[in-house]
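Checklist before submission:
- one chain only
- standard amino acids only
- sequence pasted in full

Submission:
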Amino acid sequence: MNKLFKLGALLFSFVSQSVFAETNKNPFQDFYSTNGTVAKVEQVELENGRTQISYKSFDGDQVNGQISYPESNSDKHPVLIALHAMGRSYPRWWNAEINGSPTITQANKITQMAHENGYAVVALDARYHGSRKLADKPLQLIMGNMKSGDPEFYLDMVQSSIRDYKLLLNWVTEQPQFKGMPIHVVGYSMGAQMSLLLAAADDRIEKMIIIVPPNVDEKMEYVSPIDAAQFIKHQNVLLLSSNQDQYSSQSEFSELFNTMPTKSKVQIVFDADHILPANYPEVLNFWFK
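Returned file contents:
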């Protein structure tokens, strides 16, 4: 993950005026609209209360992910949609390590905490990640192109992933075990960026944990967290940031926090860089209550 972040460092360093400044409309909802289309999700039961899911997205691309359920006698569950960091994949939300590589974002601890509080957890692979990697579009190429001023693949990666999640939301809200239940999101780094975009685009998101979202050029329409932040008006938001982050300064985190109009928001700052201390999930206990 760190090598990929280095390739993308320039992406997160631009400063410009928001293309959505002082607008009264929410263009994210129109831009990411799926016109009510519901994904036809195939499910395969796995062990330990997990279910593998897959479906065709709006453009026919195969989406892969997983759902896990808490040990509970309840037949209905609130939903936590989990969005992974750049260079990661959905299994990180369930595994402390994969092929000897530790889950340094501690995503698996958040899933465990969510289950302890009765949540079902759903995660997908973002475009060009995990099971959706493409030999002709490796992340190194995508971020290298971005560095040289060609954002086409990057924009496609982020924007198409958000539409994948929108289709998932449409499906989730129709399932008996989730119907009428709260839908919340959590994301780390790129996943935090996408969580903000998804919440700006969809009012069904009620609560959010956004962990060290990168600062992305505001001229990058519909992918910049600061652009999305002005449309976070009713959600309950917890922003976890750090004071030595390589991809967003303390002032940029503060600006992001202050830009969100919602009055239900908390920011916690860690003495760390982009990788937060291993015990940081402990601060999330209050959020799940």
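Reviewer check: The two ends are 32 Å apart (CA to CA).
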